[in-house]
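REVIEWER CHECKLIST
Item 1: Sequence provided? yes
Item 2: Single chain? yes
Item 3: Sequence as submitted:
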Amino acid sequence: MFPTCFFIMYCSREGLTKSCLQSPEQPVTLSAAKALYQFAKDGGEGNEPEIIMHLRGALGDGGGIPVVIKLLTKEAWCGADFEVQAVCLNILSRCAGEAVADGRLILRKRNGESCQADKNGEEKCRLKTVELGGLKPMVEHLKSEELDVAGKAAYCIACHALDSPVRLGIHILGGVALLLQLMSNKNADDGVVNQAALALSTVLQHVEAKDELYRLKGMKVLIDQGLMSDSVDVQENAARALAYAIEQEGNLKDLRRLEGIDKLIEMLAALPDTDRVPNDKVRQSVSFALSLSAFDSECRTEIRMKEGLRALSNCLASEEARVQEEALMALANCAFDIPCKQTIGALGGMKNGIGLLSNGELSVVANACVALSRLVFDFMSGLDFVEEGGVGQLASVLSNYCKLYDQFVESKQKHVEDLSKEDLDQEAKKAAQDALEKLEIPDLRLGRAILENCKSCAEQGNVREEMRKEENFFGNMFRMIKHEDEIVSGMACQALANAAFDVEGRPMLLEMNAIPEFVKCLTYKDVDTQLSAARAIGNFAMDSYGRQKLFESKAMAPLVAQLEAKDENGKDAIEPRRAAILAIGKCASDRSSAVELCDIGALSKLLSLMDTHWKQLGQVPAASFSPPHPLAFIAF
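Item 4: Structure as written out by the authors:
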């Protein structure tokens, strides 16, 4: 038998490794496979990417992947051999970028954060393996009598099932049923069960795989063999697989029927009477599962009744940022119900959430903003928010985000100016273009979450009063309404629209020349933004000075156009239309505005709406020009 080092020494020579892998002698093939695996493994310090990229070229261009795939089948040159199959599965896992298979990285990607694991051609290698039919032998090996091979096959599936078509392919090949069988195998050790659970946590992100799991009654397997396992790794991956599964209604019902909520709360190990040892990875996955289950009202009630809110609140004290992040989102989703809001507040959720606004992890800050936006819902919760120093903390978070965005805009503008210079040589122009492409806009999810919090706080009069006192709070919100991302800009519009409710707030916005920005937001696709913009314009029209500013800003024509407002699907947007009608009625209190409104067809459109949309809009169109309204005088 040739020693492994012989093949490591010469594997870079063209065709040598490939030829040895095709040897009919099992020892030769095994040694070559081990050498290739060693070549694929992490290299020395500094040259790891180079080694991995070199392997990608050797396998992709030199035809090595088909050879490795064939070694997984019965047609292998050396015959079907468990040892060779195990090493070949490891090679494919390594080439696919096994770091990406880490469920926590997948979760980061799902939540909208960039995943840096795919950096050395792993995606190309994954697709190459799938195109060449590599999924079928992987799935077949889940039935292997050698459980070590079955476990490696499950892990290899997890490394490849990162795209929806691949997940669908695994489902079609019967992968869900085989993975459940592997988890239920009494002879399988924790390592094998863990790999099966990890694979399910990726495959179950496809909707048809969720349906298949329900048909197979797979929730019982995930709970009995996964959540109840003694291995924390199995618990972690099973909880994540369960989280994706319960996005299907039948699986969610099975979760409640099998008392899965109780078991998830117990796994948090955050209640005083628990005898479990807390584990941050398990807590993170369990919190994620509870956050998805909390979209269901019955589950929210059960979580509250079983002291799940207390357990999640205690998890906020964890030193692990990812636990805080997922626990915050679970609390935020539970806070859709008034009883849950009140319970979370009584447990100190408001105070803890405000404290986490200063966390160093931006994902934690974003989820804290989402949670607080749902906890501030009435006068008393607003008072708690103010007393705990929430306004100052929120103002600081918003200010920091504005600074990041301003730096981004400044850098982008500089690179664009550099590219526009005519005397710039090709090398400098390429450098400027590369710098422009590498420029990253500040986290959009964070910006949206901050402004969502601002919006909910500005709905409460006592909080709005404190927000006005905070230096440049409204100014920073107005800065965000000019954000290049329409969703962030729309959220800023909704927050500022609430600020326009007060007599004291409107002059501040008029000084900023906010009316043109609200007029621009009338054209956005988001219905809530259209509605907020129309309401804000109606609020400005409540006094003669505001109406004059609206007239000078040429807001009448866009407002009339809003009478035909559509949502993002092209359907009639009733609420924005109703708000526009009310705003038109207020603007028409001045004769000059009323004349302009009639000149641009407001009256005819209102009459048309009375005929076509009277059921949806009620008496609002008629009220806009009923005597003694100026529109009525002009009409007659």
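Item 5: Key structural point noted by reviewer: Residues 176 and 213 are 7 Å apart (CA to CA).
Item 6: Recommendation: ____
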